[in-house]
Design a protein that fits this description.
The longest helix is centred in the N-terminal third of the chain and has 26 residues, at 63-88. Helix content is 42%, strand content 22%. The protein folds into 3 domains: 3-88, Orthogonal Bundle (Arc Repressor Mutant, subunit A), CATH 1.10.10.10; 95-164 and 272-305, 3-Layer(aba) Sandwich (D-Maltodextrin-Binding Protein, domain 2), CATH 3.40.190; 166-269, 3-Layer(aba) Sandwich (D-Maltodextrin-Binding Protein, domain 2). The chain has helices spanning 3-19, 22-29, 33-47, 63-88, 103-120, 137-140, 172-178, 229-237, 247-255, 286-300, 309-312, and strands at 52-54, 59-61, 95-101, 124-130, 144-149, 157-164, 166-170, 192-195, 205-208, 214-217, 224-226, 242-246, 260-262, 272-278. The protein starts with a helix and ends in a 5-residue tail after the last helix. 28% of the residues are buried. A 5-stranded mixed sheet has the order 4-3-5-14-6, with helices on one face. By secondary structure, it is α/β, with parallel strands linked by helices. It has 11 helices and 14 strands.
Length: 317
């Protein structure tokens, strides 16, 4: 197979994988379904392996096909990057960048950064989805994602934004009414506000003993259960009980005296982090690199994302 034939064949293969059928791939590429089928068959013949199994209902990748698909995406992105690099030398940074962000961080940190981004790159357009689901960047067509938690996906490049430290907070009025807990065992007599993840599981609270051992509390008997982290902060401010929240969500309320920290010396802050993720470092388009660099610059300057532990001591009950 000549080089001029390889690119259309690879495009047909990737389009078929993304759309799930030769007909849909043909519509996306502006060619016939027969041409897509012929391109994929020629590619398989050249490689000497079957890339996908076909039935009248669906296409399914073989193990070799899945591995080839990943490499094919890298190759196509390299071509896009080469074009973008050449074109970027002729014009200002432009184009659309699609971002997936958790809802709370997106509204509180990402949105305030967009005016400055647009001022620096006026020809750039940004599309942001606020969604707490974990998306597949490549499959769903995102250029980058901002996510928090325990980051385990090694197939993506992860640039650290900040550590995510958890604290237990309650409103001063609530603590005056029900008392300040002095040990994790005291929480059984308090009203708890729990966070429920999308999968239905409540987020546990961790505590570290003097000997270093770690125990967890399941706030299953919570008086209020919420899914949005910023809603937990608001619920605590309203005096509904004690909540486990991220420092960056609570800091403004701590400074305003609306919340106080409890059990700071015994509560385990967790090993969480906020990261900015994208598929490939070397093959990043200039428009995406510009957004990544700008956001990391802004987030590094955001003091709410890097509150030192010594500063938090002043907010303890």
């Amino acid at each position: 197979m000549q080089l001029t034939q390889r690119v259309p064949a690879i495009l047909s293969f990737v389009a078929a994988c993304d759309s799930g059928s030769f007909a849909a791939a043909a519509r996306a590429l502006g060619i016939s379904a027969a041409a897509v089928s012929k391109n994929v068959a020629s590619l398989e013949k050249t490689l000497g392996i079957r890339l996908m199994n076909r039935t009248t209902r669906k296409l399914s990748l073989t193990e070799e096909g899945a591995a080839f698909l990943n490499q094919a995406r890298v190759a196509l992105e390299a071509l896009d990057s080469a074009v973008d690099t050449v074109m970027s030398g002729k014009r200002e940074t432009s184009g659309r960048v699609r971002i997936s962000s958790s809802a709370a961080f997106g509204r509180q940190q990402l949105l305030p950064a967009l005016p400055g981004l647009r001022a620096r790159y006026p020809a750039l357009s940004v599309e942001v989805d606020f969604d707490d689901r974990v998306v597949d960047l490549v499959r769903d067509g995102y250029d980058l994602a901002i996510r928090g938690g325990r980051i385990v996906d090694s197939s993506l490049v992860s640039r650290p934004v900040c550590p995510l430290k958890m604290i237990l907070v309650a409103a001063p009025d609530y603590l005056r009414r029900y008392g300040i807990p002095r040990s994790p065992g005291d929480l059984t007599g308090h009203h708890l506000i729990a966070r429920r993840f999308l999968g239905g599981k409540a987020s546990p609270w961790g505590f570290r003993a003097a000997d270093g051992s770690l125990t967890t509390l399941d706030p299953g008997s919570a008086v209020v259960t919420l899914s949005a982290p910023e809603a937990l902060v608001e619920a605590a401010c309203l005096g509904l009980g004690i909540a486990q929240v991220g420092v960056h969500h609570a800091l403004a309320h701590l400074r305003a005296g609306k919340l106080q920290i409890v059990l700071a010396d015994q509560h385990d802050p967790g090993d969480y982090q906020m990261v900015l993720q994208y598929p490939h470092r070397a093959l990043m388009a200039p428009r995406v690199r510009a957004v990544v660099d700008y956001l990391l610059e802004i987030f590094r300057a955001d003091e709410t994302l890097r509150c030192p532990p010594r500063q938090l001591k002043r907010y303890q009950a």
